[in-house]
Design brief:
Elements: H1 2-15, H2 26-36, H3 41-54, H4 58-62, H5 66-73, H6 79-97, H7 105-109, H8 116-127, H9 136-145, H10 153-163, H11 169-182
Helix pairs in contact: 2-3, 2-8, 5-6, 9-10, 9-11
Length: about 210
């Protein structure tokens, strides 16, 4: 299995230009990931740009009028809930962390609306700390490849942490997300164009994965 994982990583590295580390400040990464929950990437981008054009720090956001925040992030969906969450997150950051985003998993998980995927995204993309954020792409592709046999993203994360060498943790999310967006889609994946099809167990699995 270890050799298979390494081969998969190396082959995908050739196909995708990875960024690993965001050029945005940790605060923007955190808020953007919260806004990304239950919406499409393009909607997140629009909402984030609008929000940060007005409120790009915890101090500015906590003092912002919530009706304006809702209007700015409307594109992200569930904007009533998300507006309250990001304002509360900003308040906690100011009161407990001097306006800075913590880089410890346990502290991130205590923030409103921050689950393991969001927290791990912040660790990887804001701080370049080894973690494996598991979204629908990572969960789906890991199972299709036969690296794991899990029913939930949380189970997938724990199994990947056991099986994937730590030096590859930072890139796993971005590799699988890009692969899922371009080739390994939920429905009708482009197996004929896939660089890792020979290493994949997809044909042996139920087609709803």
């Amino acid at each position: 299995m270890l050799n298979k994982i390494i081969k998969i990583v190396k082959l995908l590295e050739k196909d995708y230009n990875l960024t690993f580390y965001s050029r945005e400040k940790p605060f923007k990464v955190l808020i953007s990931v919260i806004l990304s929950q239950r919406t499409r990437d393009e909607n997140t981008l629009i909402a984030s740009k609008k929000l940060f054009s007005r409120f790009d720090t915890a101090k500015k956001l906590v003092n912002a009028d919530i009706s304006e925040v809702k209007k700015l992030i409307k594109q992200s969906g569930f904007y009533n809930v998300k507006a309250k969450r990001i304002k509360e997150v900003s308040r906690i950051l100011l009161n407990k962390y001097n306006g800075k985003v913590p880089h410890e998993l346990d502290k991130l998980l205590k923030l409103p609306g921050v689950g393991r995927k969001t927290a791990n995204c912040v660790l990887v993309y804001a701080f370049r700390k080894p973690a494996i954020p598991v979204d629908t792409h990572v969960h789906r592709i890991s199972n299709r490849l036969g690296i794991v046999k899990t029913k939930s993203p949380e189970q997938t994360e724990h199994e990947l942490m056991k099986k994937v060498p730590r030096k590859y943790w930072i890139e796993i999310n971005e590799l699988f997300v890009k692969h899922g967006q371009t080739i390994c889609s939920p429905i009708n994946p482009k197996c004929d164009k896939c660089p890792i099809t020979k290493l994949c167990d997809f044909k042996k699995l139920p087609k709803d994965i």
